[in-house]
Amino acid sequence: MVVPQIHPKTMRAMAEGRGGYGIGGGQIVPHFFLMRDSRIIPLADSLWQKAGKRPDRYTEAVFEYVTKHVGYGSDEDVHGLNEYVEMPGESLDLGWADCEGTAMLMVALLTIKGVPCHVSFGYAGSGSHRWPEVKYKDGWYIFDTTNGDIFPKESSFNKGYVAMFYVTPHSFRPSVFPVPLFLP
């Protein structure tokens, strides 16, 4: 079993209660709490204004921002750890994150402005992967912040994407498949 590690600065901020986080008894805070990072609100406000307060244009602006300003780096390369879960503001500050970090950043930014979305945890191709799914234009779309792909969710299975469960800043729910306790 891989237990996610939390960066000491993030742990300190959570222990101090900054940004609405709390930790007690050495428990690791769930992903949906980690996405509630008040440090990203100014960026969300700026992108929302630039998008003319239109959800579809905002979604495009957020995707473009995340894919241009946060590069991909494995947890091992960026943090020296096998698994590490970044808070959205931390991904912005570092300019690097893995698939989970960039997906959580995009979903956190979209949720601030009320755009329906979630992070999908599952598999793409032969490996585990995380990606945002967003209500966009005429349906649900996958916005893969790791490789820059956008396509309708209905074609996801044909492209090798299989979601196991979904996480938003407010909830955790399984997909239609049985949920394993841990993903590799």
Q: Can you walk through the features of this model?
A:
This protein has 184 residues and is of the alpha+beta class. The protein has a single domain, classed as Roll (C8orf32 fold), CATH 3.10.620. It is built from seven helices and eight strands, in the order H-H-H-H-E-H-H-E-H-E-E-E-E-E-E. A six-stranded antiparallel beta sheet has the order 6-5-4-3-7-8, covered by helices on one side. The protein has a two-stranded parallel sheet with strand order 1-2. The longest helix is centred in the middle third of the chain and has 15 residues.
Salient structural properties:
184 residues, alpha+beta, C8orf32 fold, 6-stranded antiparallel β-sheet, two-stranded parallel sheet, 7 helices, 23% strand
Cα(first) to Cα(last) distance is 8 Å
Shape: globular
Briefly note the CATH topology name: C8orf32 fold
Would you list the SSEs in sequence order as H and E?
HHHHEHHEHEEEEEE
* Strand arrangement in the largest pleated sheet: 6-5-4-3-7-8
Q: Estimate the helix proportion, in percent.
A: 25-40%
Q: Helical segment tally?
A: 7
| Sheet of most strands | 6 strands, antiparallel
For the record, the CATH architecture stands as Roll
Beta-strand fraction estimate? 15-25%
The residue-averaged pLDDT reads 78
Structural class: alpha+beta
* Unreliable runs: 1-7, 17-29, 176-184
Number of strands: 8
> If you compute it from the alpha carbons, what radius of gyration comes out, rounded to the nearest whole angstrom?
16 Å
